[in-house]
């Protein structure tokens, strides 16, 4: 993923709040509270405010782009833009600059290599006390989750994976148990991760660097083995 899960979730909530109650932070209490959440979590206020300013000036639409890369790599890119054609041209410029990437002519050529899962991310503590992985796995079984993963990149979190149709139910159950839910969203998970090495790995890294600078990008999913 491009942006942190916390920021991505916050921007989604901000978009919904702004469309419901307007863009004035003083009049829209829900939006103002989200700005405070952004500040308290140590997230970028500039990113939050720039997102709202851009959304107000040019309402954007969500699009999904399917990309084929080198060495059997595939990418699903989620973006928000008010001009799909212009964004596609920008992506092609990135592809030409790096080399080895192209849009898939059929979505199934890429998406058949992934499965969609509901992913709920929660802080790995309860009432101020750390929750061991074994306890969280028991909760995952209780909620009919498929897997529970401990993530320690940028803070200790648990990811609970479930079927897409159970996402809201799992989120509500965890909230009722007292867990702080950081994000609850649908994600694409690779069915058969591939290993990328050498020049092709460098190309993937360069493409990610370009995409990280593009404010239209919301998330990227790939089928590359972690650490490859």
UniProtKB/TrEMBL annotation:
InterPro entries on file: TACO1_YebC-like_2nd/3rd_dom, Transcrip_reg_TACO1-like, Transcrip_reg_TACO1-like_dom3, YebC-like
GO cellular component, one term: mitochondrion
Pfam families named among the record's database cross-references: Transcrip_reg (PF01709)
Domain TACO1/YebC-like second and third: 62-224
PANTHER family: TRANSLATIONAL ACTIVATOR OF CYTOCHROME C OXIDASE 1 (PTHR12532)
Name this polypeptide is given: TACO1/YebC-like second and third domain-containing protein
The organism of origin for this protein: Ancylostoma ceylanicum
């Amino acid at each position: 993923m491009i942006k942190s899960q916390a920021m991505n979730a916050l921007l989604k909530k901000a978009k919904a709040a702004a469309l419901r109650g307007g863009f004035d932070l003083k009049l829209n209490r829900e939006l103002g509270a989200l700005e405070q959440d952004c500040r308290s979590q140590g997230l970028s206020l500039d990113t939050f405010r720039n997102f709202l300013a851009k959304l107000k000036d040019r309402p954007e639409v969500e699009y999904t782009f399917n990309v084929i890369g080198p060495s059997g790599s595939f990418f699903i890119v989620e973006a928000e833009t008010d001009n799909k054609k212009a964004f596609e041209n920008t992506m092609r410029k990135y592809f030409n600059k790096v080399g080895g990437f192209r849009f898939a002519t059929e979505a199934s050529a890429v998406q058949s290599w992934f499965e969609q899962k509901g992913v709920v991310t929660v802080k790995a503590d309860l009432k101020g006390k750390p929750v061991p992985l074994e306890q969280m796995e028991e909760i995952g079984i209780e909620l009919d989750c498929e897997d529970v993963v401990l993530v320690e990149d940028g803070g200790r979190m648990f990811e609970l994976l479930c079927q897409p149709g159970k996402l809201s139910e799992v989120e509500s159950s965890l909230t009722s148990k007292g867990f702080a839910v950081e994000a609850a969203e649908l994600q694409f998970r690779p069915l058969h991760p591939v290993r990328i090495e050498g020049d092709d790995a460098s190309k993937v890294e360069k493409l990610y660097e370009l995409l990280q600078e593009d404010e239209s990008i919301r998330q990227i999913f790939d089928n590359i083995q972690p650490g490859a």
